[in-house]
Design goal:
Helix content is 72%, strand content 0%. The protein has four helices and no strands. The protein is rod-shaped, with a radius of gyration of 29 Å.
Amino acid sequence: MEFRLPETSPGRAARPPGWWRWAGIGGGVLVAVLFLALLAGVFSARRVLSWGLRRITTRVVAALPTDLPPARREELRRRLDCVVREAEAGRVDERRLGELARVCSEAVEAGRVSPEALGRIEVLSGGLCADGGGELPN
């Protein structure tokens, strides 16, 4: 028994199956769509962060003790609003912002903001606001 190679015509390359072309086009489109989704995610990350921060700070203000003086309550609300504005502008340290979010989350989970947590939130929010270039309330 003798083994023979298939005959090919010289100068003519083997042609790939037709579905390869469509698979290549589909793969290219998929890569382009995923790249655009990645870019959209990068540009919207700040917006998502500020949305979450605004949500948790609103819950903190709602969980403040009822015997807290209105002036102190308003000052804290203004500080937290300042931090959210600075976060939206991208002018705050993300590590310290995470610390503030953690303290706020712990206070909200407890159901009531303790005096210790309140003091910590005031200090962190005032520092973040000032570091970001925002105006501290008087």
